[in-house]
């Protein structure tokens, strides 16, 4: 009675109005839409994999519940049956004030598809938390939610709040802790608006590109490489409809977030919320599985730690981070080292040494076994004298006596390793054969979720096991005498990258290499800076230019092909009498697909117009001038729609200069006249022209040619201005 | 009628998620929950006490398992079980007194047959206690029996039960439940008022111009100090901040708001300051049967410092904090390890938590225990709502509140089922 009353009032008091109207909802994606956990995920969904002996999804759900979420929609795709069965049999289906509903789909191949499907169901009303079922956190949502709501009230375009966490900006931490690539974010320190998100910063490249307008629009921008994305997002309803509108959005970060950041037509904004003392991380690959398991054992995720989460099954914490279930059989001479979890009903034999490991329930471990940094799931049999170092061993595996697992090995369900067999480092072993069809990268990325061919009923699975044991019971198999299972060949190209995502610690030579690369990068960067700074004078805001310039070299090709596309579009418009509005739309589409700024569009369009003028027949320069005037008059609206501010107008003038110098020298005598024409047509404002002239003031003599040509016109403009004054 | 099961589940959830903090709130909610469990339990004709005990035990076991660190839950469950037994015994003796003792009473017979181990043991225990009680130290000193329930209910029960034997049974079943609920209400009342009752004794302990030291924050201590202040005592308080949760800061704020001269010090400065202190007054998480105290982390150090300088170390504890278990009992979970993030910022130290390099073993391990164990020899005095007691007297006080049969609540139903 009292308890309930208290709970109810506490919940209401958090936000009396908002919460009374809409219960806080969450979408939990119970599918990662990647294949990083293969071959394990061929047989069991990732969210049900045990993390310190408790399925990952339990951590996520427990956190959602404690954070005040009242309705959770669990989106199941691959192995949806297993997830649904698990949820039904667990406590989660019978919680008061916490509704867990499942949404099943068999043909979603990405997070984007999932969100589109959820949108069609019309179950989300108001703000919701978007999270995937492999996220562990103990943060409090109250503040983040409140910030999100307040921002929404002020600005309806603030549709998403992304949770980030600081991590030490050591050169290798990102890689060695979570196995993810370095992540760069540009954040406005005052408003906390996210301006740029770059997770694929290549090591070889050593730099990232920023849009110049981004720096122009935001007085202060901080570029972070010490932020970790927690993959917890607070979203408004619009997010779902955005996914539906943009049917090509697949990946939450790569497509959606970057898409929103690039798209300045709609003006949607993403903000960040930084957490300090609380914990949040997502299990993305085997390395982060290892790291987060260790964080949990070290209790960073308190109260979501095994002894508290388990509740009644009584796991006790002992000294040096040892978690022991109540009923285990432990030999007196066994050495149970620091930081281990041992599940119920496990037996451990004489002189066995275990450290930094997680042992599941019902395992039988013989004598003289060495287990170090490994994850052993339920009902595993390890016979005498085995050695395991930094390996993952799934349910039902048998290791015959004397077998050895080298660092980074993953044994999938029910594999048998033969006597004295040494499984080489980083091998993946499964009862299922490696899927052979690998059409393209994209296919590979999402293949796991095309659940039809992947999902195997457990019965069939059993058959396979027996088949295998019959056929492969010969004296030697891939896994030694009496071994059952296939060693997967490592994907081509991934061969030297396998250590990145493995559970094993990074070998010292690789570590040294990363460090070295980093140093080189830094040197390279500083060199770049030195070389580029003198030539970077064209840009007005010099401090932002280093990276921009560096990028220019790389994206020069891009720009050329973009210009060609725009030209083709423009010519087609001229010949087929397409309406100006449509041309604008097409050019915008091109701009998005080539990731260009609107400055580039203006330049490209102007270039096409001038080219058209040159190419139409003319005999004298006056005729050329008439041609140009015709074109400009006809298409002035098109050009104007891409000239939003002065910088873009200057860009057009610069472009014109370039044309006169390079592609169409016929124009150079007409420079001043056409400039005047553009001014008359209100395409260029006098400010822009004067600014251009001012900028040219300090340039070389050769650069000043056109300023001198236009001197008369400039003079006239200045006088007009003074007269007005 | 609210569904008891739902209430139990809700409460279990809150306990599990560590959402209820403080032993007083937990104790009160536990008692309220058990009251509704009792009122919802259907009582059979015979062996009503057994039925009530079973249902309370069933719920109690789950509550204790939900948060084994919060000993107040177990204490209250045991208190309620004790209340049921006492009420039952008093009714039975009253009934037997009402009938002629020569004939073997049906009631006694039924009860014996159905619930031989429990009831007979209880009866024996109660009998042995009641024979023990007259010379008990407390009764000798205070002249008034502490648990007034026994004589009171037996006299009132005697009136109604003497009439006829047939009416007796039905009325008894309602009577027992009614009495038990009454008694639980009293218990809730006790829990509610324990702060005031303890605070009332403040003037006897705090004298003019004294310097009091405390660590962390405890509501009992706050009320105690304020009560002394209200009685026009003027004294100074040193507050040790109580790292890593720094609840001492809050206490200092509260004390200043109530006009007390307060000095805030770091925990590590306690030893340096203790020579100027006249008395250490602290709260407790639980008081064990041997007089040992489970208290916020850092208190053992304070107690040792106090002993070194012969400063009295006084522990304030409401009676719901008295735990009938000894600290060496296997089911007592002495400590809870909280998140390291209270000590250090994860972001700053994430490179120390780097498992990818080296041999994969973390070199940094952060331990953040919640509690300390202060052995009884370091405690000078306990002040509970019934008065001041020596640590060596705790087991007697506990015998008044709990039945020996209930000490292991969680074991019996598991072995029974």
From TrEMBL, chain A:
Compositional bias of kind Acidic residues: 543-552
Protein name as it appears in the record: Translation initiation factor eIF2B subunit epsilon
Keywords: Cytoplasm, Initiation factor, Protein biosynthesis
W2 domain sequence ranges: 556-725
The keyword Repressor is annotated on this UniProt entry: no
GO MF term set: guanyl-nucleotide exchange factor activity; translation initiation factor activity; translation initiation factor binding
InterPro entries reported in the protein's UniProt record: ARM-type_fold, eIF-2B_epsilon_N, eIF2B_epsilon, LbH_EIF2B3/5, NTP_transferase_dom, Nucleotide-diphossugar_trans, Trimer_LpxA-like_sf, W2_domain
TrEMBL record, chain B:
Localisation: Cytoplasm, Cytosol
Compositional bias ranges of the Basic and acidic residues kind: 160-171
SUPFAM superfamilies in alphabetical order: NagB/RpiA/CoA transferase-like
Gene Ontology CC annotations of this record: cytoplasmic stress granule; cytosol; eukaryotic translation initiation factor 2B complex
Keywords: Cytoplasm, Initiation factor, Protein biosynthesis, Transferase
An example molecular function term from Gene Ontology annotations: translation initiation factor activity
One GO BP: translational initiation
Residue span of region Disordered: 143-176
Highest taxon of source: Eukaryota
One Pfam family matching this protein: IF-2B
Protein family according to the UniProt entry: Belongs to the eIF-2B alpha/beta/delta subunits family.
Description of how the protein assembles with itself and partners: Component of the translation initiation factor 2B (eIF2B) complex which is a heterodecamer of two sets of five different subunits: alpha, beta, gamma, delta and epsilon. Subunits alpha, beta and delta comprise a regulatory subcomplex and subunits epsilon and gamma comprise a catalytic subcomplex. Within the complex, the hexameric regulatory complex resides at the center, with the two heterodimeric catalytic subcomplexes bound on opposite sides.
Record-given protein name: Translation initiation factor eIF2B subunit beta
């Amino acid at each position: 009675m009292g308890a309930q009353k208290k709970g109810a009032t506490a919940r209401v008091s958090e936000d009396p109005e908002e919460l009374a109207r809409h219960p806080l909802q969450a979408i939990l994606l119970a599918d990662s839409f990647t294949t990083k956990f293969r071959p394990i995920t061929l047989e069991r969904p990732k969210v049900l994999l045990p993390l310190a002996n408790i399925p990952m999804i339990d951590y996520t759900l427990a956190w959602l519940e404690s954070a005040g979420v009242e309705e959770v929609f669990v989106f199941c795709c691959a192995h949806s049956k297993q997830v649904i069965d698990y949820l039904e049999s667990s406590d989660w289906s019978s919680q008061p004030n916490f509704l867990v509903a499942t949404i099943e789909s068999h043909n979603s191949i990405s997070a984007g598809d999932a969100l589109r499907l959820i949108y069609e169901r019309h179950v989300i009303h108001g703000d919701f938390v978007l999270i995937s079922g492999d996220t562990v956190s103990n943060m409090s949502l109250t503040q983040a939610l409140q910030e999100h709501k307040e921002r929404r009230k002020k600005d309806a375009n603030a549709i998403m709040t992304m949770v980030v966490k600081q991590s030490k900006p050591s050169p290798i931490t990102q890689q060695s802790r979570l196995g993810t690539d370095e992540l760069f974010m540009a954040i406005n320190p005052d408003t906390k608006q996210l301006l740029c998100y770059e997770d694929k910063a290549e090591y070889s490249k050593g730099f990232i590109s920023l849009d110049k307008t981004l720096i122009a629009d935001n007085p202060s921008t901080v570029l972070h490489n010490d932020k970790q994305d927690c993959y917890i997002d607070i979203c408004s309803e619009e997010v779902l409809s955005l996914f539906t509108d943009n049917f090509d959005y697949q990946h939450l970060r790569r497509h959606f977030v970057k898409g929103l950041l690039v798209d300045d037509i709609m003006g949607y904004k993403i903000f960040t919320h930084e957490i300090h003392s609380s914990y949040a991380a997502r299990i993305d690959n085997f390395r982060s599985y290892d790291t987060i398991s260790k964080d949990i054992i070290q209790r960073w995720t308190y109260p979501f730690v095994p002894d508290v989460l388990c509740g009644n099954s009584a796991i006790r914490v002992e000294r040096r981070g040892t978690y022991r279930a109540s009923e285990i059989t432990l030999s007196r001479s066994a050495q149970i080292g620091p930081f281990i979890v041992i599940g119920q009903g496990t037996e451990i034999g004489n002189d066995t040494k275990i450290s930094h490991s997680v042992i599941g329930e019902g395992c039988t471990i013989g004598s003289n076994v060495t287990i170090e940094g490994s994850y052993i799931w339920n009902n595993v049999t390890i016979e005498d004298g085995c050695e395991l170092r930094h390996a993952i061993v799934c349910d039902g595996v048998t290791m015959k006596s004397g077998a050895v697992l080298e660092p980074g090995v993953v044994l999938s369900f029910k594999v048998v390793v033969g006597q004295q067999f040494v499984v080489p480092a980083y091998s993946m072993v499964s009862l299922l054969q490696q899927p052979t069809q690998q059409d393209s990268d994209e296919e590979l990325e999402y293949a796991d979720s095309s659940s039809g061919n992947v999902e195997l009923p457990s019965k069939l699975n059993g058959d396979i096991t027996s088949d295998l044991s019959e056929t492969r019971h010969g004296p030697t198999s891939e896994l030694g005498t009496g071994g059952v299972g296939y060693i997967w060949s490592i994907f081509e190209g991934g061969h030297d990258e396998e250590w990145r995502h493995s559970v094993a610690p990074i070998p010292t030579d690789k570590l040294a290499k990363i460090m070295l690369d980093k140093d080189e990068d830094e040197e390279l960067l500083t060199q770049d800076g030195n070389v580029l700074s003198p030539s970077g004078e064209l840009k007005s805001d010099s401090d932002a230019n280093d990276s921009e310039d560096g990028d220019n070299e790389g994206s020069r090709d891009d720009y050329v092909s973009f210009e060609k596309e725009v030209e083709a579009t423009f010519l087609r418009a001229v010949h087929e009498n397409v309406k100006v509005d449509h041309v604008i739309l097409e050019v915008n589409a091109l701009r998005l697909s080539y990731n260009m700024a609107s400055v580039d569009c203006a330049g490209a369009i102007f270039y096409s117009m001038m080219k058209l003028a040159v190419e139409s027949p003319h005999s004298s320069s006056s005729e050329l001038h008439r041609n140009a005037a015709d074109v400009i008059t006809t298409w002035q609206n098109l050009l104007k729609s891409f000239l939003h501010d002065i910088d873009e107008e200057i860009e057009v003038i610069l472009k014109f200069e370039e044309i006169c110098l390079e592609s169409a020298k016929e124009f150079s005598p007409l420079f001043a006249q056409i400039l005047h024409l553009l001014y008359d047509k209100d395409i260029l404002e006098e400010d822009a022209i004067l600014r251009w002239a001012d900028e040219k003031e300090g340039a070389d003599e050769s650069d000043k040619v056109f300023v001198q040509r236009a001197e008369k016109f400039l003079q006239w403009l200045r006088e007009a201005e003074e007269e007005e004054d | 009628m609210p569904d008891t099961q739902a209430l139990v589940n809700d409460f279990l959830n809150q306990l599990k998620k560590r959402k209820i903090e403080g032993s007083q709130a937990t104790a009160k909610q536990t008692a309220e929950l058990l009251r509704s469990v009792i009122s919802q339990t259907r009582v059979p004709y015979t062996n009503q006490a057994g039925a009530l005990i079973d249902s309370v035990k069933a719920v109690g076991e789950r509550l204790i398992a939900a948060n084994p660190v919060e000993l107040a839950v177990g204490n209250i469950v045991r208190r309620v079980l004790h209340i049921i037994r006492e009420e039952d015994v008093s009714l039975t003796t009253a009934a037997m007194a009402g009938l002629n003792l020569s004939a073997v009473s049906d009631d006694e017979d039924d009860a014996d047959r159905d619930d031989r181990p429990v009831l007979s043991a209880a009866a024996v225990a109660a009998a042995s206690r009641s024979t023990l009680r007259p010379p008990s130290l407390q009764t000798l000193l205070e002249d008034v029996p502490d648990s007034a329930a026994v004589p009171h209910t037996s006299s009132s029960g005697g009136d109604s039960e003497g009439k006829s034997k047939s009416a007796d049974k039905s009325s008894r079943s309602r009577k027992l439940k009614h009495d038990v609920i009454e008694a639980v209400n009293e218990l809730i009342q006790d829990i509610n008022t324990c702060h005031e009752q303890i605070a009332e004794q403040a003037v006897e302990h705090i004298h003019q111009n004294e310097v009091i030291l405390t660590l962390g924050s405890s509501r009992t201590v706050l009320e105690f100090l304020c009560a002394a202040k209200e009685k026009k005592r003027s004294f100074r308080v040193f507050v040790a901040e109580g790292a890593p949760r720094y609840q001492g800061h809050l206490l200092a704020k509260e004390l200043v708001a109530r006009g007390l001269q307060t000095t805030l010090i770091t925990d590590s400065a306690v030893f340096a300051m203790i020579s100027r202190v006249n008395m250490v007054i602290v709260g407790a998480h639980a008081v064990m049967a041997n007089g040992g105290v489970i208290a916020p982390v850092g208190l053992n150090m304070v107690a040792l410092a106090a002993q070194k300088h012969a400063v009295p170390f006084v522990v304030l504890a409401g009676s719901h904090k008295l735990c009938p278990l000894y600290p060496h009992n296997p089911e007592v979970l002495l400590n809870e390890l909280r998140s390291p993030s209270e000590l250090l910022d994860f972001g700053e130290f994430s490179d120390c938590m780097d498992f990818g390099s080296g041999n994969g073993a973390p070199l940094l391990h952060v331990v953040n225990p919640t509690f300390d164990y202060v052995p009884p020899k370091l405690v000078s005095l306990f002040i509970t709502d019934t008065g001041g007691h020596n640590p060596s007297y705790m087991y007697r006080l506990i015998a008044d509140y709990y039945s020996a049969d209930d000490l292991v609540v969680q074991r019996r139903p598991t072995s029974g089922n």
